Amino acid sequence: MNRAVTNRINYFLDNWMPPKIRDSRWLMGAAVRLAFGPKYRYFMSFKEKAVTMQENEINGYYDFLADAVINRKTDLNNGCIRFILDHAIGSSILDAAAGRGYLAGLLQKKCGGGI
Fold this sequence. Notes:
- By secondary structure, the chain is an all-alpha fold.
- The chain has seven helices and no strands.
- α3 (about 25-35) packs across α4.
- It is globular, with a radius of gyration of 16 Å.
């Protein structure tokens, strides 16, 4: 699904749907199940489990879900990326299991620091 479409969906969910419904496990579970099929349970439980997972466990999740994820470099739109890169300062980057590391890689190139 293209980022412009997902932005419209997110806008609707964030601005028109009451949070109690939008954030319900029932609605999100159905949407994630529709999008990702039988692996939806792994998506639904990741946030709860990630805080206590070791690096190898997180990597295992990413490996297991590699064929089920949306195939794009990042969930960020170009405006967000430009804003972040234009305002980034410092020489080190913390990438805490926030996707595939696309933005961290761009920041590393710009700032010349380590991840």
